[in-house]
Amino acid sequence: MDGNKETGEFGKVRFSVEERTAIQKALSKKLGPEFVSHRPAPGGSKVAYIEGWKAISLANEVFGFNGWSHSVTHQTVDFVDQHPNGKFSVGVTAFVRVQLKDGTYHEDIGYGTSEGFKSKGQAIEKARKSAVTDGLKRSLRNFGNALGNCLQNKAYLKFVSSLKVTSQVVSVPFDESELLHDPGQLTAIRTSRKRKQNGACKEQNEENSPSCPKQHKSACMSSPCREKAGNSIDNNPSAKASCQSRAHSNQSAIAQCSLVNGKLLLAWQYWLSLCLHAHKMQHFGVDHDTVNGVGGRGGEGGGRRET
Fold it and tell me: Which of 70, 108, 214, 229 could form a disulfide with 209, with the two C-beta atoms 3.0–4.6 Å apart?
């Protein structure tokens, strides 16, 4: 059987030269501060460790999702104690083996405990899982720095701890486009999210926009709500059409308000001109009826009034 073919039996499939070089290069790198967690230890100190899910993700990146596997070779329940209050404490030992597709493997021991469980079964389950996770991480550590071996280096821990404080590592927000959804539930999820966003934006517009002009300036949504909605509206044709329709309605309302304001301005200017005209006539002594052609012979006797 050709060992270079991916159809070979797991444990007997050779890595190519390029794969071995890439794996060795990746394993030689030490973990960045975003992979290192800390927990309290006896004596007031802290212990650095890597979480189980992070160790598995790193192994998938280094070896490939089909380039490694792990198995529990042996597991023992060391003790099950029931306290006077009826709660259980359990301790479990597990031996875990991590094997690569070419047959290379490392095996190590893990230990897990559980304290204060009312259910004996739940206490044993928690301890068993903790023991397997611990054994898995200890086995992966034997492959190199990138899988946790660097956490035994005190000089490295001191260096990476200072990095974590000064560099202020910030987690990257999740991108919804990268989430795996059930196609049958995706529409329901988007509809529910759309209702929540519309409700929040409606409340925000009502609170922040009590008057007519301010209310109509926020076309469809206020800017913070548009930012929160993001691509979900752009990717949803019905939501986008509804948004554009509401925006058009609001723009029409703005135009109506502007028209009313314009008419009021014209009326005010006309009234002001009448007032100025009346004041001017009074100043020059012109009779109002004469100006309007009611008295005497029209404008024949007009002119200045005798003083």
Answer: 214
Cβ atoms of 81 and 105 closer than 8 Å = no
Is the dihedral angle over the CA atoms 49, 53, 56, 62 positive or is it negative?
A: negative
The pLDDT of residue 177 is 73
Say which residue, 165 or 86, is predicted with more confidence. Answer: 86
Mean pLDDT for 243-261 is: 59
